[in-house]
Please model this.
Amino acid sequence: MEPANPRPDATTQSEWGKRTPDHEERRLLEGARNPGSELLRATRIFAELIRGFHRLHGVGPCVTVFGSARFAVDHPYYELGRAVGGALARAGFTVMTGGGPGIMEAANRGAREAGGRSVGCNITLPVEQKPNPYLDTFVEFRHFFVRKVMLVKYSYGFVAMPGGFGTLDEIFETLTLIQTGKIQRFPMILVGRAFWRPLVEFLMETLVEAKTIDPGDASWLHVTDSPDDVCAIVRRHASEFGLHER
Model:
């Protein structure tokens, strides 16, 4: 299924330079305010969480795919993301993404084309982040931290494809939750060996040698170029935890 208006290319650096900050969200992180304002803001955040829980109830079992919004439809990483989404859907998993363009769109598209379920947790930004047209269910958030709760809460595995600061943030927050036992040791799968090689070397060599992480802390981290390997890893871990695909 083709989108009605395919996105011709990715967001440019100049567009990012013109973005306007969300002043309401910035106020949250700009120091103390009067108690009434803080209470109102906390209430809005709570309402955003409840809305997310309500919209996403029953979407699982999910696998979350992270990746850049900047890859256009003719990029090899877009095609790889599409193949990963399709493979996960055929294995019986709901594909969850950040709901935007690029790799997120590719994974959702692959899931839709394979007859699977496709879910997006979108974030409101001045540029770039608009819901892609391949979503069966989507919910939009103002706050990144609320969105990340949803991307982690419903998933039995995490797939990180090439991306930038946002993707790295999602990778490391998820790894921290796994390391500290806040979530079960579901797999984190890095797709794109060449792209992720410097990061993997930094984790496996620099951090382990410096003893800032234990050697076993990276045992749930996997690296591959194969959509079939992604599915096999997720299914194996799901089985180990007594979880089952639909």
User: Anything to note?
Assistant: Residues 35-56 form the longest helix (22 residues). The chain has one domain: 49-240.
